[in-house]
Amino acid sequence: MQFEHTYKQYDAELESVRAKVLEMGGLVEQQIVNALEALVTVNTTLADKVIANDHKVNALEVQVDEDCSHIIARRQPAAGDLRMIMMVVKTITDLERIGDEATKIARVAQKVSESGRLYTPRFNEIKTMVGHVREMLRTALDAFARLDVTKTVDVARQDEQVDEQFRAAMRQLITFMLEDPRTISMSLEVLFVAKAIERIGDHAKNIAEYVIYMVKGKDVRHTTVQEMEREAQEP
What we know:
Blueprint: H1 2-41, H2 44-75, H3 79-115, H4 123-146, H5 152-179, H6 184-216, H7 225-233
């Protein structure tokens, strides 16, 4: 009976950690949405809120990290459970960095508001990129919650699309700056935002890769999408 109680408590601890990761994921997704809205509408109040809420993301990372350290110290997990803890620690690092990128976008929104300029270049492309990275993050977190590798390759494929969209935006912005030097300052700010969004996609892809490591025991970092797909499909 004592062993049964211990196992149930251990399972509850692991489940609590996973729930906090998903809570953190939901928070950073909202940060992305609010940061873009603040930028598009030049809403300084919303930008301030994104920046202020970054401490909540950081606090969750510290809390989950401490929980994982306690589980390792008390339970000495092995095999699949150890991979789970390692996946969680890596995932919260990427989620915290996504939160940082959202904060960067909010700071650009503040700067635009202070300058009093009309912020128009490449908004459609930025909105499209944000739509892709939000979907990537949701898919990666869903794979994390279900320990399901079937959708992880979709995240990697979308990351390639986001990378291409970033390169296309960069080429167009360079053209703007060459044709009209007055757009240089504005275009650099747009480029800064586009790069932040592209980095969010990279972090979402990382989370998807961690799921494959957890489920399959295979490290697919720095591999091609085709290699990642083969690993995900292997029984």
